[in-house]
Write a structure and sequence with these properties.
alpha+beta, Beta-Lactamase, 5-stranded antiparallel beta sheet, elongated
């Protein structure tokens, strides 16, 4: 007998050490001998959030009549006028002065118009029948299934969908659909309960198993009731008792059943030896990191740990096994078999022997990769917003200056033109006015290009790259010195699919710069364009022997309003627009330049041909 109690205490100690109550769907507490609440799980907080103080008062009141020092396991009832009757099970643990209490629902609450709880929800409880059902669903956590009429039409609560882990209501439209979720060995008794209830016989509660849509085995308590002969209405009231069953398994030391539930857990669970060997793990752990059980059983836990987290893991495990810590909760990265990174929240607890030496550590592993991905997206979005806000402030300031400067120049020249009598001087003023208007027009076009690139959706189609380049050069023929530039274009004839508007923005700005910044002291200026298009990319090189860009400026030339040469008339938006457009197309751009020798831009833009050939 002593051996049995000792085993029971050790098993319960392990469950409490593991913060086991966090994973129970049953309301559970840990208290000390002074009736202080040391820990309450989420199920307790959620179920009693409206009257939590009252429930705690009722629990404490009943505990005062129990000698906790001599209690191995004791039960008592608590009653609440709104929430109904609960059975409280008190179990002593091997922790000094710590006791585990879990609450078991006894009777569904029968709503009455005189109840305060009813008046809180009276706008939602419309019909007498659904008064009871609403309270059951919202307060007790019970699920229900109603079978109505000879055709056995089905009505059920949202809790049933949660219990079965269903999102699609079309998967349960008949009572047979529900029976299909019952564990195969238990379906016969479930049908017998239902049929005898339909015949008007009374039934006691039965415990059966079901398999959820995600293949998790769950224990339920089912009670079938005949509600109305006139309407031919039968109700199945269902309570999820999986967590209670798991606790019972721990208390009874039933390893076979514990292993069955262990394998069906929705989180990864593993045992790690002091040497780092993986002693035991469930299927969910294998699923998280992508290894088969036979492969994982021969691995060290560091083999599945991301290299950047190894040092921190070693420190935590050392503290756990050297008695500095009993448990640790931390985030870490695992390496999936495929090589991708898996973020997980790990709850690591040490299990000790009778002499308090560590035997092994138990880790509960919850995959939080999606949450981390969403978190990183928020961080990236915030950084992008900060960047955009900064650029917007700069944009407003600089564009207002770039737009006002030509206008001011035009106004000044118009004023001089009115007073000027000399015809030659008047022609010079007119030419200066024209230049200012052209500058203003260029600035407006750049602003429009920037706006289109930021806000316009993609319009993929067949793009004639050679034709766009030639057309761009034709539009630059008026630029001073254009006739002195030798232009060479070599592009293969492979089909190229992309966004034509953005392609025009890119080459419009790059070729305009190549023409504008030619080296006037060079006898033979040239612009050479080489393009190689395949099914995946268009790789284009634009090479010139113009004035070039100083190396100190190269890292900044794609920034908004950055000017590498103080003597230029450009707005500093051109290359910024190029980089933004290339990024939108998921491409790459690189630049190499030597002052006095020229500049080479290299573009790599994805070919979207597969969108039109599949």
């Amino acid at each position: 007998m002593q051996k049995s109690n000792h085993s029971l205490k050790n098993k319960l100690k392990a469950t409490v050490d593991l913060n086991f109550i966090n994973y129970l769907s049953q309301p559970t507490l840990i208290i000390n001998k002074n009736f202080d609440i040391l820990k309450a799980n989420e199920a307790f907080k959620e179920k009693f959030n409206l009257v939590v103080d009252k429930i705690l008062e009722l629990v404490a009141r009943e505990l005062k009549f129990i000698d906790l020092q001599e209690t191995e396991c004791k039960s008592f009832n608590i009653n609440h006028p709104v929430l109904g009757q609960y059975k409280a099970n008190v179990v002593s643990t091997s922790h000094t002065d710590q006791y585990l209490i879990f609450l078991d629902r006894q009777e569904p609450y029968q709503a009455s118009p005189n109840d305060d709880f009813f008046y809180v929800r009276k706008k939602r409880l419309i019909y007498p029948m659904y008064k009871k059902l609403m309270v059951m669903e919202q307060v007790t956590g019970l699920a229900y299934v109603e079978v109505v009429g000879d055709k056995e039409n089905l009505r059920y609560s949202q809790n049933l969908l949660a219990l079965l882990e269903l999102e699609d209501e079309s998967k349960i439209v008949s009572i047979e659909d529900f029976f299909n979720f019952i564990y195969p060995e238990d379906r016969k008794i479930a049908r017998e309960i239902y049929e005898s209830c339909k015949d008007g016989e009374l039934n006691e509660e039965h415990e059966i198993r079901l398999i959820s849509n995600n293949h998790h085995v769950k224990f339920i308590k089912i009670n079938c009731r005949r509600l109305s002969d006139k309407e031919n209405c039968t109700m199945l009231v269902i309570q999820d008792i999986s967590s209670q069953k798991m606790l019972e398994v721990a208390l009874r030391d039933n390893e076979a059943l514990f292993r069955s539930i262990f394998e069906q857990a929705a989180v990864g669970i593993s045992q790690v030896s002091p040497k780092g060997e993986l002693l035991m793990f469930n299927q969910k752990m294998c699923d998280i990191i992508g290894y088969k059980p036979e492969a994982l059983s021969s691995m060290h836990y560091l083999n599945i740990t991301h290299p950047d987290d190894v040092e921190n893991d070693l420190r935590i495990v050392e503290d756990i096994f050297s008695n500095k810590l009993d448990e640790g909760i931390f985030e870490k990265r695992f390496l999936h078999k495929s090589g991708k990174t898996i973020w997980a929240k790990v709850h690591l607890t040490v299990i000790r022997d009778d002499k308090n030496f560590p035997k092994y550590a138990v880790g509960i592993v919850d995959d939080i990769s999606e949450a981390k991905k969403a978190e990183q997206q928020i961080v990236n979005q915030n950084e992008e917003l900060i960047r955009l806000n900064s650029e917007m402030d700069n944009f407003v300031y600089r564009t207002s200056h770039d737009l006002r400067a030509p206008l001011a120049s035009v106004l000044g020249l118009v004023h001089l033109l009115k007073k000027e009598k000399n015809e030659k001087n008047r022609d010079e003023y007119m030419e200066l006015i024209e230049n200012s208007v052209v500058r203003l027009d260029n600035s407006i076009h750049e602003i429009l290009d920037l706006s289109r690139n930021s806000r316009t959706d993609f319009e993929y189609g067949l793009v004639d790259l050679a034709k766009i380049i030639k057309s761009t050069f034709n539009s630059l023929a008026h630029v001073k010195g254009f006739d002195n530039i030798k232009i060479n274009i070599e592009i293969n004839e492979e089909e190229f699919f992309s966004d034509e508007k953005r392609i025009k923005m890119i080459f419009g700005n790059l070729l305009s710069n190549a023409v504008s910044y030619q080296n006037i002291y060079c006898e033979k200026s040239f612009i050479k364009i080489d393009g190689v298009i395949d099914n995946k990319f268009a790789k284009i090189t634009i090479n010139d022997n113009g004035v070039g860009i100083d190396e100190s400026h190269l890292k900044n030339i794609f920034k908004m309003f950055y000017r590498a040469n103080d003597h230029t008339n450009g707005s500093g938006l051109g290359l910024y627009i190029v980089k933004e457009a290339v990024d939108k197309l998921k491409g790459k751009i690189d630049v190499q330049s030597i002052v006095g020798n020229g500049t080479t831009f290299t573009l790599q833009i994805p070919n979207q041909k597969q969108l039109f050939t599949t």
